[in-house]
Amino acid sequence: MQKTFDDYLNDPRIIDEPMGLRITHAMRFKVQEETKGMTSQEKALYYREGTKNAFNQLGLVPKYANIDTF
Questions:
Q1: Which domain holds residue 36?
Q2: Distance separating alpha carbons of residues 16 and 4, to the nearest angstrom
Q3: How far is it, in rounded angstroms, from Cα 34 to Cα 67?
Q4: Residue 63 located in a structural domain
Q5: Residue 59, pLDDT score
């Protein structure tokens, strides 16, 4: 069963933190779990795709780098 973001957000290790820190920690936990066991190349692809998706969702165009080539 795949964890939801709320599962990470309610992790007992961070439950007493202020909400801003809980969100930051939850994102880190999620990325760590999703990239566990990946090679450096696989992680680079993971982050590249995530960056592309974020830019697309926000309607942004990268100005200083071609995210398709790095």
A1: 5-58
A2: 19
A3: 21
A4: no
A5: 93
Integer Cα distance of 42 and 63 in angstroms = 25
* Cβ-Cβ contacts under 8 Å for 62 (sequence gap 6 or more): 55
Q: Is residue 27 part of a domain?
A: yes
pLDDT averaged per 10 residues in sequence order, the chain, 70 residues: 91 96 96 96 93 91 69
Nearest CA-CA partner of 27 in 14, 42, 40: 14
Nearest-angstrom CA–CA distance, 46 and 65:
17
Q: In the structure encoding, which two tokens stand for residue 61, read together?
A: 């165009």
Q: Has residue 54 been placed in a domain?
A: yes
Domain count, the chain: 1
